Amino acid sequence: MSIQESNWKYADDIVAESGAIQKARDQSLELGIRPISPGTGSQIALIAAASSARNIMEIGTGAGVSGLWLLSNRSKGVLTTIDSESEHLGHARSFFVEAGISPARTRLITGRTRDVLPRMNEDSYDLVLVDADPEEILENIEHALRLVRVGGTVLVPHALHKGRVADPAQRDAVTVAFRSLIEEVAASDAVASALSPVGDGLLQLTKLA
After folding, report:
1. Parallel, antiparallel, or unpaired: how do β-strands 78-83 and 202-207 relate?
2. Which of 18, 184, 196, 208 qualifies as a cystine partner to 202, CB 3.0-4.6 A?
3. What gap in Å lies between CA 112 and CA 132, rounded to an integer?
4. 117 within 8 A of 140, measured Cβ to Cβ
5. Rounded distance between C-alpha atoms, residue 188 and residue 195, angstroms
6. pLDDT category of residue 76 using cuts at 50, 70 and 90
7. Of 84, 40, 38, which Cα lies nearest the Cα of 62?
8. What is the pLDDT at residue 2?
9. CA terminus-to-terminus distance, the chain
10. What is the pTM of this model?
11. Contact criterion met (CB below 8 Å) for 78 and 55
12. How many Cβ atoms are within 10 Å of 57's Cβ, its own excluded?
């Protein structure tokens, strides 16, 4: 194991996940969903807490791992989360309840993002997490930046796409889309951006005036 891999493993292993998150993670794996890593979860929870995010949007619910992290750290935020699979949302709902999160703090929407997101109000969210179909990443990021308020943050886990983005020889469509996204936002004066190698990569964007 390389030093870098040891660091990644340590960053994940040091995180203590709640029982509800652990169960949601196990359920995700059973469903074939790739949840965010524990290290990524602790980082997005910190960002949500540090920014005092009250209105949170999640594009891609899965079984609820990332949503549980976003609503942890004594967060008072309200989460709107979208997934095309009603089964996924059903599992997420049960884990939110198990974690003691009031139903009033979660709004679960079933539907394809390309159908749901155009109907959402722009400049309405403090934080938007994008973790849906990677083949739609560029379209979903465009919506996320429209929905988040000025000064708000967009988070993109799995931004290094299984380690393929850093390898220029990898030219499949999804890898190229993530690579283009990272390069474009790095050169943009409309957002401040940072790329963390935590987990499978966490791209952080803050919308500027």
Report:
1. unpaired
2. 196
3. 10
4. yes
5. 14
6. confident
7. 84
8. 84
9. 44
10. 0.96
11. yes
12. 27
